[in-house]
Amino acid sequence: MKKFTVYISRRMLAPAIPMIAKKCNVVVNEKGRPSTRKEILNGVRGKDAILCTLLDDIDAKVIDTAGTNLKVISSYSTGVDHIDVEEATKRGISVTSTGDILTETTADLTFALILAIARQITYGHETVMHKRWKYGWDPYLMLGSDVHGKVLGILGLGKIGSAVARRAKGFDMDIIYHNRHDRNIRTEEQVGAKYVSLEELVQRSDFLSLHCPLNNENHHIINRSIFKIMKRSTYLINTARGDLVNEPHLIEALRKKWIAGAGLDVFEKEPPSYNNKLLKMKNVVLLPHIGSATLSTRTKMSEIAAKNILNVLNGKTPIYLTNPQIHQR
Ligand code: DGY
């Protein structure tokens, strides 16, 4: 292969960087933190490929700065909402992701959040650790909500939503869902999920779990008007993208007890600022965007991200191509 040059915006788990470095010249941000905007703009200039993470805003300016050599933008993530896919497509540049590889791992974490918020797991842990557990077993201590037998509402019954639904079946939950576009007949049959309107979904769910990719259509889809029609006993779970939820509206809903609580792995701004009111609330469980964070899954993601680049540079089809339309040009 001709020695192509690849910009890698951040150090990551093996094998991505050594795999790419074996075949191409690589320029890696070695600083142990995400690349700054300036570093990205300098780094991508003249490169054949970019390996980025979801923190890198790969917009039209970055794509333009990279120039006409650029053939592939590979994200070390499944979501590609940080990439201007339309602009890349116009220029015939492949945009690739890590696809389905994190599905089961993210579904595990979603269920961990459901259990943690309903049964006050983190609050209980802190109580014991901080020596605030005074009198042993107590009839009134930490009365949570059941998970089994409750209604799980899934917004976005794609791969991860379906994996969550399968887990919910083991908890004898009633599963309802809403998709903006196509129904998922396969999962409907597998787990007995019922398709409902968005309104019915949010009104009936005891746990409302978000699993849609972020796009212009669903930005802030969960907002004040939605919180107002939810049951006061409902928990919101978000392991997808922070921008699906209007965060100030969520804070209002939690403060005014329009809903019972929230389990969040993602935020509008990550990390949330120290004065974000969510950080002072009791009825939340907050995690630092770790849905895919197991050693095994992050390693597989790394391998796929590298293969996506090497395949495109070799004239082959990448494993997960977001914009197959480029081939119709
Ligand atoms: C993704 O890949 O999109 C997750 O949010 C992080 O792994």
Commentary on this structure:
With 329 residues, the chain is of the alpha/beta class. It has 2 domains: 5-99 and 295-328, NAD(P)-binding Rossmann-like Domain (Rossmann fold, 3-Layer(aba) Sandwich); 103-286, Rossmann fold. It contains 12 helices and 12 strands. It has helices at residues 16-23, 37-44, 60-66, 85-90, 103-118, 121-129, 159-170, 185-191, 198-204, 224-229, 247-255, 295-313; strands at residues 5-8, 25-28, 49-52, 72-75, 94-96, 151-155, 174-178, 194-195, 207-210, 235-238, 261-264, 284-286. A 7-stranded parallel β-sheet has the order 8-7-6-9-10-11-12, sandwiched between helices. Strands 2-1-3-4-5 form a 5-stranded parallel β-sheet. Helix 5 (103-118) crosses helix 7 (159-170). The protein is globular. The relative contact order is 0.15. The model has no long low-confidence stretch (mean pLDDT 97). (2R)-2,3-dihydroxypropanoic acid (DGY) binds at residues 54, 77-79, 98, 102, 291-292.
Biggest sheet statistics: 7 strands, parallel
Helices and strands, in order, run as EHEHEHEHEHHEHEHEHEHEHEEH
CATH topology-level name of the largest domain: Rossmann fold
Bound molecules: (2R)-2,3-dihydroxypropanoic acid
Helix content: 25-40%
Estimate the global geometry from the Cα principal axes: globular
CATH architecture annotation of the largest domain: 3-Layer(aba) Sandwich
Q: Please tally the β strands and state the result.
A: 12
User: Rounded to an integer, what's the Rg over CA atoms?
Assistant: 22 Å
Q: Trace the largest sheet across and list its strands.
A: 8-7-6-9-10-11-12
Structural class: alpha/beta
Low-confidence stretches: none
- SS summary, helix count: 12
CATH level 1 name of the largest domain = Alpha Beta
Oligomer: single chain
Nearest-integer average pLDDT: 97
| Beta-strand residue percentage | 5-15%
- Structural domains: how many: 2
The separation of the N and C termini measures 25 Å
**Mind telling me the CATH superfamily name of the largest domain?**
NAD(P)-binding Rossmann-like Domain
